[in-house]
Amino acid sequence: MRLVLAIRAFFGTLLDPNVAQAISQVLKLELQARKRPTGRIKRVSKKSPLTIPATPGLGKGYYSSSRGDPEDAPSSGSQRSGSSRIGRRSEAITLLALLQRRAGLVDLIYEDLEGLSDEQVGRMARGVLDQSHQCLDECMELTTLVDQIEGELIEIPDSVSPNRWDLVGDSSTPSGRVLHPGWVANRLELPGWRGSQENALVVAQVKVDTTAPIRLKDSAVET
After folding, report:
1. Contact 196, 16 (CB under 8 A)
2. Residue 166 pLDDT more than 60?
3. 147: helix, strand or coil
4. Residue 99: φ, ψ to 5°
5. Of the chain's two ends, which shows fewer C-beta atoms within 10 Å, N or C?
6. Nearest-CA neighbor of 176 among 197, 198, 196, 157?
7. Residue 198, Cβ neighbours under 10 Å: how many?
8. CB neighbours (10 Å) of residue 129?
9. Could you tell me if 58 and 193 are in contact, meaning their C-beta atoms sit under 8 angstroms apart?
């Protein structure tokens, strides 16, 4: 089989310039593959919620293309006629993208937990929760709405906002026992979006390992 293929490649190279060009490209890819490191690449399970490592700081580089895509880069000169090159993005998507990038939160939420023990789930969740806590502390300041902790008695104001108070049971009683002290954000600082409108809803980028050696059969051109 190899002999037949070699003969076809030989005569094809001599007689057909398209075949010659295709074989030349394959040989270049093979040469590049030999120059790359040949160490074994550790495979990571596709389902693992911790495949995206935590990144220190809320770097602005995450919000623009790492390859300098002109569609995602801010324009310092004139804008395109009829539309702006910089799109708008919901702060909810920005925060979700931060939690995914720093902690892999979305990966954990959508992880298939069937067949995993509580101990395995706990080990996966511990790191994600710790990193999510750090991420929230960096971009906002959260405090409880009341000073009382769960289980303590609290007086209910005469006029309560349904956005701040959730009264379970008889709402006419002057006091009750705290089930949850509530949360309020006193500060919110999220990085601005510098990408295009087309990518405004992207929560996580596609990550590709380009350091793996290229196999010749994967890059061969059919003739």
Report:
1. no
2. yes
3. coil
4. -65, -30
5. N
6. 157
7. 10
8. 14
9. no
